[in-house]
Structure formats: C-alpha cells, structure tokens
C-alpha cells in the first residue's frame, strides 16, 4: 500500500476509486488496520501542531510509529511511512479527516421481502460484516438485527433493520435499495451511509457519506433528500425532523472498532475513555480547558494505548487512579 494514498484519504483528497482501494487493503489483515489506525491517530494529533504538544513531540510520535511498522516488516520490505519534517507537519496541520455518514431506521412492512429470508443479529460489543446478494456490504453494530432476502427479486431491494448499521450499497438505478426501520425508511440507488434506529429509542438518525438518499416515513412518504455530510434526526412520535452538517467519521468509524471524537474538550475525551475502559483518569488540564481537539482511539488497543495518544496530543501527563 502506497502511504501517499493513506495521506490523500486522511486529507479528504482521495477519489472514490482510491477510497475503495484503501478499503480493500484494510480488509486484507489486522496489521493493515493497525497501521492505518495509528497513522490516523497521529494525523489527528498533528492537526494541533500549534498547541503545547509542539513539533518535537509530534516528530517523536511519528518516528515511534514508523519504527514499529519497520520492525514488523521483513528487511527487504521496510519502508518509511512518515516524513517527519516541519514542512510535512505544517501541511498536515492544515487538512482534516475525510468524513463519513450515518442513518437510522427499523422494521415494519415486510410484504416485499422474499419468503426465503436470512436473519442476522449481534450481541453486545459485537460488530459483524455481511455481503448481500447484490454485493452491498453492511456493517452491523452491537445489539443490531438485519432481515434480508437470500436473493433480491422484484423491482426493489429491501431489508429491515433494528439497530445501527453502515451500508455501502451497490449501485443499480433500476432497483432502488430500501432500508426499513420502525421509525422511517431510507431509499437509495448507490451510496454509503450510516443508520442508527433502535426500536426502543424515541430518536432515529441517518448520516450520508456519499451519493444521495431519500428519507421517508414508514408509509413511504418523502421527508427530505440528504447530501453528503448531512445528518437527519427524526422523532417519529412528534414527526420532528432536524438536518445538520456533521463530521461523518464521528458516526461511522465504529465499524472499525474506533471511537472518533471531533471538536471536543479534554474533559470530553477523558469521560469517553473512562466510560469505555471503566477506569478513572487524573489529568491537569486547567490551562487547556478552552482547547478543542479531534481524537480517535481503537477500543481493543486498550486504555494504556489510548492514554498514550492523549499524552502525545496534549503534552500532559495522565494517571489512572
């Protein structure tokens, strides 16, 4: 994998074909995912090169990750994934993460789904990936269920969702793809989006990463058409609908086991780490209380690794009490 492709993705300059190439590379091995996630975490820290972390700490962080990657490769394949000079840091600090998006809906009308149905569900903390008969790829978050036909037939491709899922829908203009939930329906031709719609929740939402989707009521009445980078929040009880622009990666990175936070305080980050790992963190952040950060950590890397990245980003010492 050319590291320049990863740089283009993180800076939002990758084409759709390059995004698909990167996604394919990520699915090859866990080592590839680890390399990407560590590069992404460092990239986030570099965006704050003007903060107390300073260029020296960033250079050290890049060097450490680069050495770790170098040691994991055979001698004849060792490469440099990072160029840690001031020019690169200044460039990296000026770019932002490529955004992604989410969506929400649930079960209701089942008359258009084949009698030969498949049903998959996830337990707490599980994330599953399935590929439908048309090539559409679906990531299911924890406590989520999806009902779908073994093979799509008829004029529409319909599935039923309860929970949260990210869809990469195979384009087929003659056969619209429809996701049904207890709160609303989403109609697409070919796109990628996230849906969060649990049947026991009074709110449902969807975020669009690419393409175009149409949000509908459970009866099929059109509500709104979303553009990439937009989130729709729908309250079925009152029929209130709110649309806003969001950082998509914050709502979609869960499919890679990541927690992504955008424009948050140190206190917000600490709270997230404490809730995820069931720990208590002590950090003296009074003089940085007005600073805002983008922070991403991978759950299964553990609390120690997440805290280490927080220290790189802020220049502060953290202690687990």
What does this structure look like?
The protein is α+β, with helices and mostly antiparallel strands and 321 residues long. 28% of the residues lie in helices and 28% in strands. The protein contains eight helices and 17 strands. The strands form three sheets. Strands 1, 2, 3, 4, 5, 6, 7, 8, 9, 10, 11, 12 and 13 form a 13-stranded mixed beta sheet that branches. A two-stranded antiparallel sheet has the order 14-16. Strand 6 (177-180) and strand 7 form a beta hairpin. Helix 3 runs parallel beside helix 8 (303-314) and helix 7 packs antiparallel against helix 8. It is globular.
Counting DSSP H or I runs of 4 or more residues, the number of helices is 8
Order of helices and strands: HHHHHEEEEEEEEEEEEEHEHEEHE
> What is the number of strand segments?
17
Question: Approximately what portion of the residues adopt beta-strand conformation?
Answer: 25-35%
Helix content class: 25-40%
Distance between the termini: 41 Å
